[in-house]
Please model this.
Amino acid sequence: MIWNLGSINADNFYRLPHLPGPGETIAATELRQGLGGKGANMSVAAARAAARVMHIGAVGQDGAWALQRLLEYGVETAHITVIDTATGHANIHVDAAGENNIVLFPGANHMVTDQMIGAALAEASPGDFLLMQNETLGQPFAAETAKLLGMRVAYAAAPFSAESVTRLLDRIDLLVLNAVEAGQLEKETGTELRDLPVADVIVTLGGDGCRWISTATHEERRFPAFSTQVVDTTGAGDTFTGYLIAGLDRGMKMAEAIELAQKAGALMVARQGTADVIPDLKDIQDHDFGA
Model:
């Protein structure tokens, strides 16, 4: 089972002819709203990859729709707390080439307490996964608790903070970074990725695929990306991570889980949206990735 300490956001998508520069005012050609947040995206992706997922987080009184949507997508919500503040949200700007920038308001995501986390993880079992990102609070407490319980800890270190990552390195089993974040972490620690005290490191490379670094064997393997038409890159990394952890939780070998996750990511970038459009296993099985 996967216990995901993660954010829940209302995503506001603004379609733009190009991403605005400093001081530039630009008119959006389209506005759409949907469920998002890195945490919610990963929970939905893992659930659609046939894993059992319990989300740990918080929403405001205005977030009842988000709880219902998560339930519809197969995510368990018993440990999502409704509190007296605004639900987190993100304003996402997407240009004609599918690139994006994002402005976040954390809202209820930054009201998650250690008590909420502890109450959830008290129900976890040894061997379960704890999955975390950086859009909530409580990661150090959650990681420490998970290790005491014999859980496996996976950390998708975004939005990236080198300080946040370094203080958790000794409690992480699997670290997921993009190429820029990996470079920043190596610079901050003065240590190459293969020498980190983390069993497995995954570096996503966008259209160039990803790298898997096994620090135990000092081996590295590259996985090329699957060819696809890019419409919107928002949520693709979250989809990859959710599918990756789900595959591992279901007993797949790392290489198998990475291949599955890359297929899910390839389908995701061809779609417009976040949690609401994450592909399920049938989408992947029906798609011809060799074409």
Observations:
- The chain is about 30% helix and 25% strand.
- The two ends are 34 Å apart (CA to CA).
- The CA atoms of residues 92 and 102 lie 5 Å apart.
